Amino acid sequence: MKFEAFLNEVEACNETFRRCIADYHKTNDIDTDEPKGPDGFQGLIYSKCWIDTVQWHLEDEIRRTDIDPDEALSFKRRIDASNQARTDMVEQLDDRYLERFQEVEPNADARLNTESPAWAMDRLSILALKIFHMEEETDRKDADAAHREKCQQKLAVLMVQQEDLTRSIAQLLEDVHSGQRIMKVYRQMKMYNDPSLNPVLYKSGQEG
Fold first, then answer.
1. Which pLDDT score, from 0 to 100, does residue 204 have?
2. Phi then psi dihedrals of residue 111, to 5 deg
3. What is the pLDDT of residue 96?
4. What's residue 196's pLDDT?
5. CA 2 – CA 24 distance, rounded (Å)
6. What is the DSSP string of the chain?
7. What global pTM score does this model have?
8. pLDDT in the model for residue 207
9. Which of 106, 118, 158, 202 is within CB 3.0–4.6 Å of 207 for a Cys-Cys bond?
């Protein structure tokens, strides 16, 4: 495959992120069920972004200054569960990449990468959310012109970041495909959600 093909593939993920975020904001409700997304790999991309989008708004809610402590604790529990779901989804995506490139024999001088393709996609999903919400800020009727201008400048930086990261992921996929980089995945091994690994839980008899 040529670089352009990988670039088109990552651009398709950006389009799926945009579609997912737009779908969420039809209700803008953290309790809205995830709608039916695309099929195949893009379906996983959509579900990954849905998790990110709901969590984005959970993080907003928990920072309300008038929030009830019990409600805040409930949001914290949901955020913990969402973080685990996000990690699980990224690992599913990496499993797809591992399967896809399993026949590739890395070159003798092939290099490792600092992150896997799916974790790079995770950053791209978050960038899509930042762009959506920064765009909202550039058009806020209740904000002054200085605020909108400042947000416009930030939006421009985010757009460059999105373009650069999109190309970087395409280059990574191309390098893995050609054997120039090694496709290797390290699982996150999150401990705080595991009652057998979190000492606060297992010492209190909540190991299950």
1. 74
2. -110, 155
3. 95
4. 73
5. 34
6. --HHHHHHHHHHHHHHHHHHHHHHTTTT-TTPPPPP--SHHHHHHHHHHHHHHHHHHHHHHHT-TT--HHHHHHHHHHHHHHHHHHHHHHHHHHHHHHHHTTT----TT-B--SS-HHHHHHHHHHHHHHHHHHHHHHT-TTS-HHHHHHHHHHHHHHHHHHHHHHHHHHHHHHHHHHTSB----------TT-TTT-HHHHTTT---
7. 0.90
8. 52
9. 202
Give the tokens for residue 5. 């093909």
List CB contacts of 121: < 8 A, sequence separation 6 or more: 13, 45, 48, 90, 93, 169
Q: Which of these, 48, 53, 42, lies nearest to 13 by C-alpha position?
A: 42
Helices 69-100 and 117-138, axial angle in degrees (round to 10): 130
The vertex-20 CA angle with 33 and 148, nearest 5°, equals 115
CA 156 to chain centre: 20
* Structure-block tokens of residue 193: 């959600």
